[in-house]
């Protein structure tokens, strides 16, 4: 190996400190919020004078919070399903197809990843205003689908490119209809890619706030939007509790993804 | 007369302006082991892929028992195929892989179990049923692929360089297995390879492909003894080529001379008449005789200088430089008296039986 960590001498400790500081910088705000959500102070005093679960009780007792969480979940699930389905079909075209402009199309599919989200949000808002989709679930799903699809296409094309096409051909010669061969052989073989696509699509929608603010109406709000609007009205530790719940779902899904990846490897 | 088993008639495949294969005509007998041999890009794999139905021919037809296969989609052709890459279904066990074509055909469970067992016996992998492909060696995987391709008793088995990913020793081992399985099952096999030794070892007949056309079809010995052109001669077995001058051509025989040497009569000749012109004389290294002295007038066509001597177990290879600048190799059996005491720089005299040589013109 070019850089052997064990042989770095004093550098080893400097690197460890830098790594530790970076990790702390990334994780501390989240830990801070989580700690505040269990604190008894209504004014989010840190360190908390004492510990309580009252903000979580308040969260689960308030139908508006629950509805926002349910809306987030509902939209994220729809985005996930559509994103994986469309991503799968698009990936087959991008990987297996032979047509002019294929690479340009692939790049186009990935532009929502680099385009400033707020630009997309304003554009979609203006467009949805004309066709009356603002403040609807459909509008939400479409908006989130735009930003979720690149992740889906990226993971599925990756998996499909790593899949030996002859394996599918072999299934066809064994007597399976080309579609049956894809369902029974190709899909199981690229399931890790489909799974990553699903997780990333879900998370993209689940914690997305910019598009959601534009798409939301007073009656249709996702959890991040509810946190945002509540934050602007008053400062309550329920926000910390909601944020912590949001993060817990995200971490749980990331862990699940890591576990599945490990399971698929062995 | 009964209908030939498998006929490929006037097959042609164009990709845009590029012609991959043209004018391919082959008749295969039931139970025959036919190999398509040729370098990469010679059209042998394209022909196989058209047989499998993965490519549509631009022109021509394929008849199996007299019926055209062209309009039948791949999955209904009932043809078996073993691929160059490992193509076992990664998420299924060995047993499930072999059962796959049978499940697709809606066989009953008992029949499937019995057949899987029988096929594992055929490829000598009893007890491997529950293994996953990733837990097996390349050779084992190709044997399972063979079992899967034969499980539904296809009339024809296609094999597309199935051993090219394996090392030499393993390759030879599996070649023996393929031979045995061919004899046991009597399935008709169309085999693609670029390895002449593999082709000679396995096949009943070989079709030599070059630049999209078949140069020659015949048994190994036929191709070796009577190659129809320079390409076939150089592709099957080792060969030496010497430039010679054609003095006369008649009835498929030529009289020729090499350099300023004597006229040699009665050499089989192929190609158009080039009397008075130059042509390539092909000699087989093991049919050349080697002498230390120019014995008798005209008995030896060539003098040459030894440039290298290689001991290869049962054979000794002598490389020699002819006055024309061409390098010839001579193969002598180990212990041959002509090789005793031979060393680099010695002048030797090479002779050959005109019947064993060939001249290729044009």
UniProtKB/TrEMBL annotation, chain A:
It comes from the Bacteria. Pfam families: BPD_transp_1 (PF00528). PROSITE patterns: ABC_TM1. It is found in: Cell inner membrane; Cell membrane. The chain crosses the membrane at residues 12-38, 73-95, 107-128, 140-160, 194-215, 235-260. GO terms for biological process: transmembrane transport. InterPro entries: MetI-like, MetI-like_sf. Belongs to the binding-protein-dependent transport system permease family. One of its GO terms (cellular component) is plasma membrane. Keywords: Cell inner membrane, Cell membrane, Membrane, Transmembrane, Transmembrane helix, Transport. Its main location: membrane. SUPFAM superfamilies: MetI-like (SSF161098). Residues 69-257 form the ABC transmembrane type-1 domain. This is ABC transporter permease. It is a multi-pass membrane protein.
Automatic annotation (TrEMBL), chain B:
This is Branched-chain amino acid ABC transporter substrate-binding protein. PROSITE patterns: ABC_TRANSPORTER_1, ABC_TRANSPORTER_2. Keywords: ATP-binding, Nucleotide-binding, Transport. The keyword Acyltransferase does not apply. GO terms for molecular function: ATP binding; ATP hydrolysis activity; transmembrane transporter activity. One of its GO terms (cellular component) is ATP-binding cassette (ABC) transporter complex. InterPro entries: AAA+_ATPase, ABC_SmlMolc_Importer, ABC_transporter-like_ATP-bd, ABC_transporter-like_CS, Mo/tungstate-bd_C_term_dom, P-loop_NTPase, Transp-assoc_OB_typ2. Residues 6-236 form the ABC transporter domain. The keyword Nucleotide-binding applies. One of its GO terms (biological process) is quaternary ammonium group transport. Pfam families: ABC_tran (PF00005), TOBE_2 (PF08402). It comes from Pararhizobium antarcticum. Belongs to the ABC transporter superfamily.
